[in-house]
């Protein structure tokens, strides 16, 4: 990571409820530009909800304040600016099935940034080469393996030159033999200065690549620290029992 003191994501008192059921109980979190943060924790602990609030894929309590690169995340005109800076990669890839791989990657730069088609195509080919699937450009997502589709999804997110990339369990839907190729791409990305927030069950990846690991449970940020702190000397019993169960 490029160490800078500049905060790119700031979360203050984040509360999120579904009806009377509160999913996030007041999360405070600052993430520095270039930082790689892995979020771990049991199923249902609010990991997805937390990162989906960062680009307002989920609405949250109006008292909560999230800013990305100084822009407040809330409904309205500024939201498009936030979303242009924040790329997201989902467990289920979410590619457009009726478009070729190349078109999937070209779409947002053309639509959102008004990039000319030829330039978008050239950039898309460069990105596909970067994630190791240049030769798949003219296929449709359904013709690719899961690992290849996820690499397309990463290329598509990168096409907008985001400052922040959010990953929600990017390898959880993959056959085991494809997990490594996606983690390799993410590991390389982590060295490029883009800020990454990665919800993952890949503890080896978190230990190796994260600058900071966050453990969530029950809609609360229970503990955070360096990978060695969280994995080797966690303070909280809840963290210890989770790690005993998964490691
Ligand atoms: P995680 O990603 O850690 O598994 P989630 O953020 O998906 O957890 O979910 C946190 C909690 O919010 C869970 O209890 C889940 O059941 C609940 N939840 C998520 N989405 C909805 C929804 N659309 N309606 C009601 N409850 C939801
Ligand atoms: Mg989740």
UniProtKB/TrEMBL annotation:
SUPFAM superfamilies assigned to the protein according to its UniProt record, in alphabetical order: P-loop containing nucleoside triphosphate hydrolases
SMART domains: AAA
Keyword entries, A-Z: ATP-binding, Nucleotide-binding, Transport
Pfam families: ABC_tran
Domain ABC transporter: 9-243
InterPro entries membership: AAA+_ATPase, ABC_ATPase_HisP-typ, ABC_transporter-like_ATP-bd, ABC_transporter-like_CS, MetN_ABC_transporter-like, P-loop_NTPase
MF GO annotations: ABC-type amino acid transporter activity; ATP binding; ATP hydrolysis activity
Gene3D superfamilies: P-loop containing nucleotide triphosphate hydrolases
Family designation: Belongs to the ABC transporter superfamily.
Protein name, as recorded: Amino acid ABC transporter ATP-binding protein
Originating species: Rhizobium straminoryzae
């Amino acid at each position: 990571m490029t160490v800078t003191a500049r905060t790119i994501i700031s979360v203050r008192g984040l509360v999120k409820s579904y009806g009377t059921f509160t999913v996030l109980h007041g999360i405070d979190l600052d993430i520095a530009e270039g930082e790689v943060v892995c979020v771990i924790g049991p199923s249902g602990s609010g990991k997805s909800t937390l990162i989906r609030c960062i680009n307002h894929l989920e609405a949250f309590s109006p008292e909560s304040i999230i800013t990305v690169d100084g822009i407040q995340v809330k409904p309205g005109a500024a939201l498009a600016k936030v979303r242009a800076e924040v790329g997201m990669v989902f467990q289920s890839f979410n590619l457009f099935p009726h478009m070729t791989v190349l078109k999937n990657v070209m779409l947002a730069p053309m639509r959102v940034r008004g990039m000319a088609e030829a330039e978008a195509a050239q950039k898309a080919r460069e990105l596909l080469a970067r994630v190791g699937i240049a030769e798949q450009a003219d296929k449709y997502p359904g013709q690719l393996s899961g690992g290849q589709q996820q690499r397309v999804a990463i290329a598509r997110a990168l096409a907008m030159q985001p400052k922040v990339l959010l990953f929600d369990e990017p390898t959880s839907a993959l056959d085991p033999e494809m997990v490594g190729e996606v983690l390799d791409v993410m590991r390389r990305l982590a060295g490029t200065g883009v800020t990454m927030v990665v919800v993952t069950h890949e503890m080896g990846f978190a230990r190796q690549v994260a600058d900071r690991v966050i453990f969530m449970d029950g809609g609360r940020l229970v503990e955070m620290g360096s990978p060695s702190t969280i994995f080797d000397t966690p303070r909280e019993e809840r963290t210890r029992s989770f790690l005993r169960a998964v490691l």
